[in-house]
DNA sequence: TTCTGGCACTCGTGCCCGGTGAGTGCCAGG
DNA sequence: CCTGGCACTCACCGGGCACGAGTGCCAGAA
């Protein structure tokens, strides 16, 4: 087990490296941190830390930099979550309060998070899986064409065009709408299939085809849209790390464009509490040089989606985690209000 | 006026430079292009072209590179639009045909365009300004709360929450919906305000407040959503230009995140025909090292929105213009069908 | 046992410097 | 008006060299 001081040395190394972005040596360490021991002692500690794989040197006669494993230890044991200052909190609230609809909330959140952390922000739209149905609307567009509109409790609206096999009267359609709504409003998406299963039977023979196809379109929409959408912002922040350019930035930009990858990434994060994935802990290869800080947010006590940031492994973890958590909290509040 | 051969020399310089990304000299030119004259002659021509500001040398004893003015001449006089190969055309169609809704169409278009041109693609959502109303729906959510849903002929759906000053019966609401739709369906957004102006008067005193607020919300939505949205893709392609890294890429990424800037950019493009803005012709400073190729697209004969690509001034203009035009055409078709 | 100061060693970085070659401008002659 | 020749410029490349940050090890002190 590592002694108290060695952990302290690791913490100092991480802090200095994050600040300066340069390998940190024993002498600089003793000067900037009151460790109470000489550089020589620190050197011994560093050698031990290197043996254990927490730090590494890019080349002989250079200082040490933390490894992924080192950051992991730092995050787990050494770093707290740095709370935001109250002006910052106020700024968040003010910024988010002006949102007019869901797109706007998500858009503002992304910008806010990118600005606060100075990193790439990723915000998932509130998930439909855990959402409930607020309303289903059926609009006759032509004699044999109906538009299906699904409204969720998170304010999301999805629409689908349905071509009917046989024309349907407005009355039948209104009937279907009424019955459909009485069954599914307020219910969770997952429960809907069962709830509407027997609905076609209660209609006249001639309308059954249409009813069936409307229902199956509804179910399709529920499933399809469970593949969530997300919004990204702050990619310009990637250019702050000119060092490993462009070897690093390219695969990251590519990964960011593949929303599927990001959704999987967020999906892997714990539902509650904060998840930090460091460097190679990320399954996707393009993100092996980055860390992901993600957290769930929701309108109630339950998380309906996740948000987070993607940045270099050498990030300010306490600060980033603080910002991510705070933003998630406020977004949750905003969603609960609307 | 420049002689025929000098124009030919400029064309050769542009082509070579776009291909190699390196300053091109007189000797290389005569070797790669059958100009029929010696390097010395080409040198004289190049000196003349430099005097006129069409080309420049980064430093003495280096080859020449085209200036913005040079590219401008190239695009205006020397370059045609390179049509796509028929396999490419088929690929476009296949790729776009699978789209299920508007978001999907736009998303696919962006990916397609980015892939074809290997540059950053920007696609504006079909504009509401020129759109017509397909349907307006009013859904009672609570006793004094109504959801307003607006559906456009381009398949876009917008929703707004309306808090009523006084409760309204479902019958009155249905009445309002019916009257509203009979007036505005099929009409252009711009005409709607006039068409609904006198509507509140025809309602009972107790409902007028609600009717008014519903109408004003509708008008607000029309105006607000005229500020268009857009989608961006292919930012990873920016890393292909490692040369001017990261001095160039940073402001570009920043500009791309400011959708307002991009919308203005697209707005400046001509409604019909293709617009090419080269380097400093772009008002936004961050885009001074890039060129923008934009074109309008639409479901009918009229353009409802624009799409285009952003790339380095040293881009393959004929190829890019060909791809942009082809994609715009197919997207127009897809929209017309749905 | 643990810490400390000293010391030799490594090696990346920055700098100077000369050679090379691509490219130019100019000029005299066809 | 074109061409070949020629002198000149200058970015680029590679080698050599000094510098210094940082290390590992060791003997002695606490």
From TrEMBL, chains A, B:
Record lineage: Bacteria, Bacillati, Actinomycetota, Actinomycetes, Kitasatosporales
Transcription among keywords: yes
Protein name: Heat-inducible transcription repressor HrcA
UniProtKB keywords: Repressor, Stress response, Transcription, Transcription regulation
GO biological process: negative regulation of DNA-templated transcription
Organism: Streptomyces violaceusniger
Single GO MF descriptor: DNA binding
UniProt-listed Pfam families: HrcA
Entry-linked NCBIfam families: hrcA
Gene (name only): hrcA
């Amino acid at each position: 087990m590592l002694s108290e001081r060695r952990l302290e040395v690791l913490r100092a190394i991480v802090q200095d490296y994050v600040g300066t972005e340069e390998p940190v040596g024993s002498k600089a360490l003793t000067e900037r941190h009151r460790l109470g021991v000489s550089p020589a002692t620190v050197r011994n500690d560093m050698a031990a830390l290197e043996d254990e794989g927490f730090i590494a040197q890019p080349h002989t006669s250079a200082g040490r930099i933390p490894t992924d494993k080192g950051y992991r230890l730092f995050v787990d044991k050494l770093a707290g979550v740095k709370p935001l200052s109250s002006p910052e909190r106020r700024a968040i609230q003010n910024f988010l309060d002006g949102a007019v609809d869901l797109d706007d909330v998500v858009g503002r959140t992304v910008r806010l998070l990118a600005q606060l952390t100075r990193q790439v922000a990723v915000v998932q739209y509130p998930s439909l899986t855990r959402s409930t149905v607020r309303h289903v609307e059926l609009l006759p567009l032509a004699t044999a064409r109906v538009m299906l509109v699904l409204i969720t409790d998170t304010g999301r609206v999805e629409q689908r065009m349905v071509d009917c096999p046989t024309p349907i009267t407005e009355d039948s359609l209104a009937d279907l709408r009424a019955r459909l709504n009485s069954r599914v409003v307020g219910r969770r998406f997952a429960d809907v299939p069962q709830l509407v299963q027997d609905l076609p039977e209660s209609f006249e023979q001639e309308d059954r085809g249409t009813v069936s196809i409307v229902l199956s379109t509804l179910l399709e929409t529920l499933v399809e849209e469970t593949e969530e959408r997300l919004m990204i912002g702050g990619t310009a922040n990637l250019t702050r790390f000119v060092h490993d350019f462009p070897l690093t930035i390219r695969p990251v930009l590519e990964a960011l464009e593949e929303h599927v990858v990001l959704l999987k990434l967020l999906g892997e994060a714990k539902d509650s509490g904060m998840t930090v994935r460091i460097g190679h802990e990320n399954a996707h290869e393009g993100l092996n040089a980055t860390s992901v800080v993600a957290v769930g947010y929701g309108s109630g006590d339950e998380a309906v989606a996740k948000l987070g940031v993607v940045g270099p492994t050498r990030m300010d973890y306490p600060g980033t985690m603080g910002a991510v958590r705070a933003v998630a909290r406020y977004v949750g509040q905003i969603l609960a209000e609307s």
